[in-house]
Every structure is written in structure tokens, then in C-alpha cells.
């Protein structure tokens, strides 16, 4: 079984390769991993092309939802995108924040940061920046963001609780997040947990939906809700790369469900301390 650092290195290496590929190559695979399917479409992602601010150069086809569509971003907001890749969600968010807002993309992979910065240069935007960092320790000060978004990234992180607590830290009181991610209902075949390729491909790193939502509540978030919930159907040829024919049928006939969810939650507004003595409140 890999350690957390080994899993992170797997992700970094895989997404360094993905940064050098085009969208077409990524879309023929399992969330960008090399488990190529003859069904050439991305089994996870939704279509960004109709969203204002869409930048084709920044779209690597790696997401599993459209968090920026649901994120309630307003003009002047400061937005943080966790696992920003080539900058796709950042540029959509920037369209919504306008010139007076700010968008910060955080990514673990140097090659992705380089690609995102090149895309930002082409746009001429001066209020979109990209920082390399581990989202378990977000390189941003506390109480900065009005909104946090993320697209198919937390499932790749070994310590999801740490990331959710970091999201809470960087959000302003009253701020909120909208995150798209892969979760499970039922148990994955045990073999998948040992396959690094599927970890980098957004599948074997996913956790139970119920546990995912419990972590959000435990971190202190309120008004947690699902904005979208869709089933992910993995093509047989991808399953066949990792499972025997008998195991494929067992999986398909079982109770395991892989879903993409977009979840929303708010950081509570800080309450003022109670006035305990006469004259203590001004």
C-alpha cells in the first residue's frame, strides 16, 4: 500500500504528463489517466464550452462537473480554485468577478502551473494568478476568499479532511464553496485500491459520499447541499484493463455506484461576543 507521499508523487507525475497532452488525448481516457477507452469521450467531465469566459487552451477535459456554474460568484469576489490545472475554471470565474475581483489558482504540478500562466498571459488578465502548492496546506492567508471552487481534485488527495479544513480557513466568514468531485456508494473492488493508475484517474482515491459530506459538516460548514449528482459509467474496456471478465460482471451487478457530485457549503458568519457587563458594548 502506498504512503501519502507516494500517492502524491503518482499524481504529480501523471498530471505532468497530462499537461503536455492535448484535450483530445485526455478525453479518451479515465479522467486523464492512460487507461484509454475505445469510447472516445471523457467519462467524467461536463461541457464547459457554453460558459462565458471559457478558454479552449485551458480546457484539458479533466473535470467531473461545472462548479463555476453553481458557485454564485459575483463581481468583485476573490475566488480560489483548488487544483486549477491549465486554468479553465479560473478563467470562467474571472469572467464573473470582473476586473475588480481576483482569482487565485492553486496546483500541485509545476507543469500545470507553467501551462496556466502561459494561458493567462494570452488573455492579458492581471487579476488571475497561479500558485504552486499542496492544497492540504493552501498557500493563501486566512479569511481571504469569498468563494472556493474545485473540479475533480479532492479525490486525488490522500488527506481530504485536511483540505476541507484548509478551505474553511481561507474562506471569509460568510463565504462559500462549490466543489465537483467523485464519490462512492458501496465498496470498490479491492483490486482497484492497489492500482496507482486508477488513483491518478480519479477513481480509487474516491471515498463514500456519506463520509465526504460528514467531513464537510465536521469542519464547521453550514447549509451543505448537493447542487448536482450524476452517475459515472465506466466503459467495459477500461474496466477490463484492471478486472477479469468475471470481476467486471460482479462489479456491474453489485451495489457499487460511482457518482460525480457538486456540493455547496457556507462558512458561518462570525457571531459577535455577548455583552456580559453594563457598558462593555460600544
Can you walk me through this structure?
- There is one protein chain.
- This protein is α/β, with parallel strands linked by helices and 282 residues long.
- It has a single domain, classed as Rossmann fold.
- Helix content is 33%, strand content 21%.
- It has eleven helices and eight strands.
- Strands 1, 2, 3, 4, 5, 6, 7 and 8 form an eight-stranded mixed β-sheet that branches.
- Helix 6 links the parallel strand 4 and strand 5.
- Helix 1 crosses helix 5.
- The longest helix has 16 residues.
- The radius of gyration is 19 Å and the shape is globular.
CATH superfamily annotation: Vaccinia Virus protein VP39
Helix residue percentage? 25-40%
What is the total number of structural domains? Answer: 1
Overall 3D form: globular
As a percent range, the share of strand residues is 15-25%
The counted number of beta strands is 8
Which consecutive residue ranges, at least 5 long each, have pLDDT under 50? 25-41, 272-276
| CATH C-level | Alpha Beta
Regarding quaternary structure, how should these chains be classified? Answer: single chain
Question: Structural class from helices and strands?
Answer: alpha/beta
The end-to-end span amounts to: 58 Å
Gyration radius over CA: 19 Å
The run of helices and strands is HHHEHEHEEHEHHEHEHHE
| Main sheet record | 8 strands, mixed
